[in-house]
Amino acid sequence: MKMRLGLFANPFTSAANVTANVGTPAHLATMGDVARHSITLARNANHALPIASGAHVLVTGWGFGTTQTLTNDLAATGRTVQRLWTGSPDQTAIDAAVAAAQANDVTVVTTGNAWADPTQQNLVHALLATGKPVVVASVEGPYDVSFFADAPTYVLSYDYQAVSMQALANALVGAARPTGHLPVTVPTADGTGTLFRYGTGIIGY
């Protein structure tokens, strides 16, 4: 793509070009369209998605602003939403998230590069152990799922900007079908096998 756009031959822009293009309505519309098409549903084995109207939802996990934006977007759809940001949680934070999950109908837990953060991994596994419906949502790279092979519902947004959280929220509640596909092959955590192949993506639910 960079080659086709000539960015190797002419890699520099100007302040005028930035001002004229970045943040314009057309630019924001393109961002939103890309975000909508990127949401990837890799697994929905327990049919936790779409989240039913009237459901009580816990949003927890990585990303202070991310969890707040996602909470606001889900609440705007009529769901009752509780937010409990954990970041890289200690055991006290994990225990609080587990208790909150047990008090709600479904939990959406966000992860950000959890492959390198055992505390995030501990949080997700503790939530899955509650037996309540849990949606694991990776909001950065696609490789976190290697460490959550037992997660029955897994969705990826690849990004945590506001447009991506809006797209994720819409996919979670069924306002827009997920249509994305994995751009990479995801290996198992030990690297000896394949968990999801390139192109994986459930269209709809």
Question: Could you describe the 3D structure shown?
Answer:
There is one protein chain. The chain has one domain (47-196): Glycoside hydrolase family 3 C-terminal domain (Rossmann fold). It has a six-stranded mixed sheet with strand order 1-6-5-4-2-3, with helices on both faces. Strands 7-8 form a two-stranded antiparallel sheet. The protein is globular. It contains six helices and eight strands. Helix 5 links the parallel strand 4 and strand 5 (134-138). The longest helix has 14 residues, at 25-38. With 205 residues, it is of the alpha/beta class.
Can you give me a brief rundown of this structure?
The protein is an alpha/beta fold.
First-residue to last-residue Cα separation: 31 Å
Strand order of the largest sheet: 1-6-5-4-2-3
* Largest sheet entry: 6 strands, mixed
Estimated structural class: alpha/beta
Helix content: 25-40%
Strand fraction band?
15-25%
Poorly predicted regions are none
Oligomer: single chain
| CATH fold assignment | Rossmann fold
Global mean pLDDT: 96
Number of continuous helical runs: 6
Under CATH at level 1, the class stands as: Alpha Beta
**C-alpha-based Rg, rounded:** 18 Å
Query: Which shape, going by the Cα principal axes?
Result: globular
Number of strands: 8
What would CATH call the architecture?
Answer: 3-Layer(aba) Sandwich
Reading the helices and strands in chain order gives: HHEEHEHEHEEHEE
How many distinct domains?
1
CATH homolog superfamily = Glycoside hydrolase family 3 C-terminal domain
